Amino acid sequence: MHTYQLFIDGEYCDPAGGEWFDTVNPYTGKAWARIPRGGKADVDRAVAAASRALTEGPWATMTATARGKLMRRLGDLVAANAESLAATEVRDNGKLLAEMAGQVRYHPEWWYYFGGLADKIEGAVVPIDKPDLLTFTTHEPVGVVAALTAWNSPLLFIAWKCAPAIAAGCTVVIKPSEFTSASTLNFMALTKEAGFPDGVFNVVTGFGAETGAALVEHPGVAKVTFTGSDTTGRAVYQAAARGLKRVSLELGGKSPNIVFEDADLDAAVAGVVSGIFAATGQTCIAGSRLLVQNSIRDAFVDKLVAMGRTAKIGDPMQADVNIGPVTTPPQFQKIMDYIDIAKGEGARCVLGGRRAEGVGLESGQFVQPTIFVDVTNDMRIAQEEVFGPVLSVIGFDTEADAVRIGNDVIYGLAAGVWTKDIGRGLRMTKALKAGMVWVNTYRAVSYMMPFGGIKDSGIGRESGMSSVKEFLETKSVWISTSDAVPANPFIQR
To answer: Which of 134, 160, 203, 340 could bridge 462 with an S-S bond, Cβ 3.0-4.6 Å?
Structure first.
C-alpha cells in the first residue's frame, strides 16, 4: 500500500505522532493506502507556516498579477494530471469515474477564473462629506484560511474554497475528510510544481475530533470554510465563534424537484434521476423530494421507475456503470436505516429498498436505487437528509401547494422546477426559499455562479465573482490634506 505524508510548509512530512490509518476502497472493501493521522502539533506547524507565508517571504510581497499567473499555471497542471487524480478519487470515494473525471477536468476553470480576478480586486476613493480629507478603501486578505472539505468531491471543494482565497492573497490549511484524503495530498505536489511559495498551501489529514477541531479552534486561523453535514456544521460554527472567526458553511439539503403537468415529461424524468441517483445520491444538492402534480403523478412515477430499473450497479471504474458504492460504512448504514424508517412511517416502496447484491457487489456497500410513494411531507423521510439514492414522491395540486410543500423543510440549498410555462418558472424561482433554483435542468454548477444555501443549508457562497469577498477585509484610509490645526481637538471631527 502507498503511504502518504502530510504537506506542510512546501514539503511532505510525517505526522508528529508517527501514526497512520488505512483508507478503504468502497468498491473492493479493502484498504489501499495509509493516511497520516495528524494532530494538534501538526496543525500548529501548518498554521505557523501559513502565517509566515502571509507576512514574510515572496507571497507577502507578490503582486496580485503574479499570484494570478501561478494560479493559471496550477490550472494547467491539474488539467494535465486530471485522469490520475480522478482515478485516485474513485478509489477513495467510490463515485463513478465518469463523474469524477468530469469534475477534475472542470476543476482548472476555478484557477483560471479566480487567477484572472486576482488583480481586479479594487478599492475605491470615497467623496467624503468632510473638507480637506482624501479617503479611500483597500481590500486585504483576511488571513490564514482553514478549509475543511467533504468526502464526496474532495478536489472540487478545494477549487471552490481555495481558488478565491488564494486570489484574495490568503494562505490555506486544508483538512480533507479522513475517508478521502489521498487526492488532496496528491494535488499538493502540483502546487509545488506550479511555483507557489512554501506555506501558501498546507494539508493536515486526520480525524475531525482531533485534527479538525484543533484547526477550527486555532487562534492563528482567521477564516473557516466548511462543507459537510448540518450537524457537524453547527459544531464548527460554535467552535469558530469562540474565536470570532469568519465562517462559510455549505451544509445539507432536502431539495424539492418539482414537476408540473405541462413539463416535458421525458426530460423531467431524466432530470429527477440525475438529481437523486447520480453520485449514488451522495450530494448535498440531491433532489431527494419529488413533488409531482397529481394529474400526472402515477404516469410520471411509472416512467421514473422504468428508468430507475435500467441503472447498472457495479464497479465505478467501468464506463457502463450508473451507480457505484456508498462511500463509507456509517453512511451505508444510515441509508439503510432511513429506508426502514420510511417503511415504518407508511411510505410504499415501488423501486429498490434493499442492499444491492450480485456478481461483483460482494465486497462493496451498494444500495439499490429506491423510490417511495405515498409520502407526506411531515414524514422523516421527507424532512431529513438521507444522502443516498432514496427518493420521496409527494403529490400536489396547485402551484401554491408546490411552493408551500417545497419550502416546508429546515433546509434551503437547491430546488428544481419543470414546466414549459416561463411565467410559472419565474414565479417559482422567486417563491422557493433556496439558494439555487434550476428550471428545466438540474445539478448544473459553474465557477461563474454562486453556490450555497439559506436556512440550515449554510452561510455564505462559493464560486462566482462575489465569493472572493468572503476572504477579504476592507480597510478605510483617511488622509488629511489641511495644514490647519483643529480648533478643538477634544471633539470628534
So the answer is: 160
